[in-house]
Each structure stands twice: as C-alpha cells, then as structure tokens.
Write a structure and sequence with these properties.
With about 250 residues, the protein is mainly α. The strands form two sheets. The chain has a two-stranded antiparallel sheet. Strands 3-4 form a two-stranded antiparallel ribbon.
C-alpha cells in the first residue's frame, strides 16, 4: 500500500473518532439533568432546596457543605413542605396531605397480622381460588404455587430494599442528611403512575427515574444513580408499590 493511501486511511480514522466523540458528548449533554438555580447567599450556611427548584431554607450554623443530623434534616424538611403548601393551591395541599395519611395507614396495615391463606388442594400445589380462576380464564399456561411464592418473595425483597433506601439519607448518598421520606412519607406525592410526563424543572418529558435522580442531586445533594443501578430499581419498585391499585395516567399533572 502506498504512503498516500495510508495517509487517507489515517485521516478517515481521525475523522471517524472525532465524529463518534462529538455524538457521545452531545448525547451525554442531552441526557444530563439540569441543576437547581443557585440561591443568593453569603456562603456561610447550608442551603437546602425542595425539588421544585424554588423553595429553599438557609440553615444557620451549618457549614455550606455540612451534614444535618437526622433530627435537623427532618425539621428542615417539615419547614420546607410547610412553605411549599403555603404557596400551593388548597386542592394540591389537601391532596398531598391525603396521600401522606393514606400511605402511612397503608404502611401500618402491612405490619398487621396477615389473614390466613386458603389451603392448597392435595397434590395440586394450588389453592381452590387459584384453580377456580384458572378454569374461568381458561389459561393455557399454568404455574405452580412454588413459582408464585418465589416471585412474591423476590418482589418483596426488592420493595423492602427500596423502602430502606427511601428512608435513609446515607443509602441514597445524601451529603446534607436529607432523605426521600422526609418530604414524601411512605412515597406520598410521588405519582409514579403519571410518568412519563413533561416536568418544568427538567424542561423535558421525564421518567420516574429522572425525578428520583433530580431529588437525589438537588434536595439531597447526592450523586445520580445509573438507570441499571440496583438502588434505582429498588426505589422504583418501592414507589410503585405504594401506589398499587391506582389507575395509570401517563402525562397527568
């Protein structure tokens, strides 16, 4: 091969690498979430912001990069939510309170003694109810009670892990002590059934995981989770489980 041909191949290779780099950077910029607008401050105290990008509190005596105690963080979250509800219309504030109360009651009922399940028929591994439902639906594919038991246990483990993360500032990587549950008790006002939808803060159509990362990066000042991160999967499972039975309404605000 002539020197001129090698030169052409080299130039094409450099152009190809440059083009690939450009598209990777452009894609990353498109996917990156925006940040809260900076709050005017003298920089001497910690600023905590809500996910609306507008409501914020300056915490006297706490270093700008400091960490709140659990008691301080909960008190700050209560104050922020009070400020937010004071600005919100009555219907929105009432809806948040109702969801918070329902979620709390639902969470408490899950800890109550469970009703005894129907006894499985001898040799079938299925309950009378399950056998009846199978006949009614005329399913061609059947699964054993063991299959359902395994699936239920695995899902329960995922939801429980998400519950732990949601209530722990350390597990979500918060640097200021704020945890998800401090503003969203038992997943209240998260509305997973309404995603995807346009979010003003992000200035684009967002998925539930986008809003999870928004809250981790902004109010909690943590590091965003990758889409395939086990913590992200667990958080989505927990939040969705809290709204079980709610009709899907993508795009609803």
């Amino acid at each position: 091969m002539k020197k001129k041909d090698w030169l052409k191949i080299s130039v094409l290779g450099v152009c190809l690498i440059a083009a690939m780099t450009f598209f990777r950077v452009a894609h990353a910029q498109q996917q990156a979430l925006p940040k809260h607008p900076p709050v005017k401050s003298d920089g001497k105290n910690l600023i905590v912001q809500l996910c609306d990008g507008q409501t914020n509190i300056e915490v006297p005596g706490v270093d700008p990069n400091g960490r709140l105690t659990a008691e301080q963080a909960q008190a700050v979250s209560h104050q922020l939510m009070s400020m937010w509800m004071a600005k919100a219309d009555k219907a929105t504030a009432d809806a948040w309170m109702k969801e918070a109360n329902v979620a709390t009651e639902s969470n408490a009922s899950q800890d109550a003694p469970k009703e005894k399940k129907p006894v499985a028929r001898q040799g079938t591994g299925r309950t009378d109810k399950a056998v009846s439902e199978k006949k009614e639906s005329k399913q061609l594919v059947d699964f054993s009670a063991r299959d359902y038991s395994i699936w239920d246990k695995e899902l329960a483990k995922e939801i429980d892990y998400g519950n732990q993360i949601f209530h722990s500032d350390q597990l979500i990587g918060s640097t200021n002590g704020i945890a998800c549950a401090m503003c969203h008790p038992n997943g209240a006002n998260t509305h997973p059934e309404t995603y995807p939808k346009f979010q003003l803060q992000l200035k684009r159509v967002a998925l539930l995981r986008d809003m999870i990362n928004w809250c981790i990066e902004n109010p909690a000042r943590g590091t965003r989770l990758a889409a395939d991160d086990p913590k992200m999967r667990a958080l989505e499972a927990y939040i969705m489980a809290q709204r079980k039975g709610t009709a899907m309404q993508p795009g609803k605000h």
